[in-house]
Amino acid sequence: MENDVLNLINGTLQPALGGEWLENVEPATGAVYGRIARSGVDDVEAAVAAGRAAFPEWRAWSPADRRAVLHRLADKVAENAALLAESEARDNGKPVSLAAAVDIPRAEQNLRFYASAAEQFASESHTMGDGTVNYTLRKPLGVVGCISPWNLPLYLFTWKIAPALASGNCVVAKPSEVTPMTAYLLGTWAKEVGLPDGVLNILHGLGPEVGQAMVDHHHVRAISFTGGSSTGAAISAAAAPKFKKLSLELGGKNATVVFDDCDFDAALSTAIRAAFANQGQICLCGSRILVQDTIYERFRDAMVNKVSRMRIGDPMDPETKMGAVVSRAHRDKVLAAIATARGEGGTILCGGGRHQPREPRLQGGFFVQPTLIEGLDHTCVTNREEIFGPVATLQSFSDEREALGLANATKYGLSASVWTRDLQRAHRVASGIDTGMVWINCWLVRDLRTPFGGTRQSGVGREGGYNSMRFFTEPQNVCVKL
Ligand code: TXE
Q1: Centroid of ligand 1 to alpha carbon of 230 (angstroms)
Q2: What is the number of structural domains in the chain?
Q3: Where are the beta strands (DSSP E) in 357-410?
Q4: Tens-digit pLDDT profile for residues 413-428
Q5: Angle CA(115)–CA(107)–CA(8) in degrees, nearest 5?
Q6: Ligand 1 lined by 203 (C-beta under 6 Å)
């Protein structure tokens, strides 16, 4: 049927072997617009077998040939950028302008970046002074699993499969069942660009079914996962006894820390973008805004003024800056979090509920008003649990010490952004914050070579640059007595 999302196994696009389907819902309308293959254990068996069969040939490809094929896949993304952006907006609810400016260019960039890495990745050697030399081989693992979420669908899907392929592995990848369309489209070009059958396999379906079967499979040597912390914990528990390599990029409850000597306008506009970009559904979103008490009221009022004027619209309209959240279930989760904030005594400064659009097409859509809340301290659930929607809180602090205490008062440790013109304080505060990444006077500026990931409940391991290439390879030291 039109809009069917099929599996890619051994170079063939096919329905799930069990013949079952899931419904694909458009978040802006709430309507079903396609079907998704509902895969299970048998599909995983077939995909892993295809990957194992393809591995000896694929690992023997020269780095230059792997580079070339990844560039050809990137070319396809570039040629089909408009189709992919529209598909992403329809599947996810994000504005098509955002998908066209961020998601799809970044997917292309991921493929090109790791195409280069295929050739540039190198390993170490250690000489011992007595003529003995050690050199370390970096061998691909075999078949690896890549499990990605719905918030940045093609962006995070390619962020995982590109280094896995570049380093010579065969891949079984599972995009989120909530947003599978762009990964499916990418798979339709695999053969044409020259990826041998079985090198890239893409399975669709539910996490606890096909995702779990991938994690459980004896011959899947590593799992690279991005998603919620509780799913990450379940995957860890299943993978640990099998001694799989794991890379987990999980949730966040990130602080935006605003000192009174900051560039006020830059801090304000970036704090808003950090809180509400992609409807607040980015693990790096700054959902706790900490502002020095000397400028708190001015900052809060300016923020409320701007946020209450943000317009929600049809994701497919190129003018729209804020679209729908990803699903009915997710909308209800975000609304429940706002209700919890009210129950905890928080003051809703703006937003605070569903948005009901006027357009007939959008009547059944999943829209939430951008919401700012104050009056809750760091012990409240609202300031402790990830909401992952267009909801942010404001808290004030008096000095650097208190700012650091608040910034670190969470079980997560993904990222933070710090706003000050005092160079010494900027570096001091950055090093005092217990997160994997800190931005100073900016947010979400990304150099793909840098380590990406979090501490504590935000995950284990780092992606990016050679970190991903190391994750997807096994070091083997060879010691030579000359
Ligand atoms: O994600 P899940 P959900 C956070 C955010 C959100 C919460 C839950 O707070 O509200 O997580 O979102 C697959 N074995 N983030 O439930 O379940 C699943 O099919 C193997 C933060 O939608 O973590 C999908 O492909 N795989 C985040 C992927 O895991 C399983 C982005 C992520 O889904 C599985 C998304 C299992 N047992 C949500 N269960 C970020 N870090 O950016 C599910 N999956």
Answers
A1: 8
A2: 2
A3: 371-374, 391-397
A4: 999 999 999 999 999 9
A5: 85
A6: no
Q: How far apart are CA 471 and CA 219, in angstroms?
A: 17
Judge whether 163 lies within some domain: yes
Which residue in the list 26, 108, 209, 249 is annotated as catalytic? 249
CATH number of the CATH domain containing 427: 3.40.309.10
Calpha distance 338→32 (Å, rounded): 27
**Chain segment 165-198, per-residue pLDDT in tens:** 999 999 999 999 999 999 999 999 999 999 999 9
| Residue 231, ligand 1, Cβ within 6 A | yes
Provide the residue range defining the domain that includes 29: 7-250+458-480
d(CA 353, CA 342) in angstroms, rounded, equals: 11
Closest CA to 105 of 83, 137, 127, 77: 77
Task: Write out 396-412 in H/E/C secondary structure.
Answer: EECCHHHHHHHHCCCCE
Clarify whether 262 is annotated catalytic. no
Q: Is residue 281 located within the same domain as residue 239? A: no
Ligand 1 atom nearest to 327, measured from its CA? 22
Active-site residue flag, 249: yes
Ligand 1 pocket residue status of 208, Cβ below 6 Å? yes
Please work out whether the CB of residue 457 comes within 6 Å of at least one atom of ligand 1: no
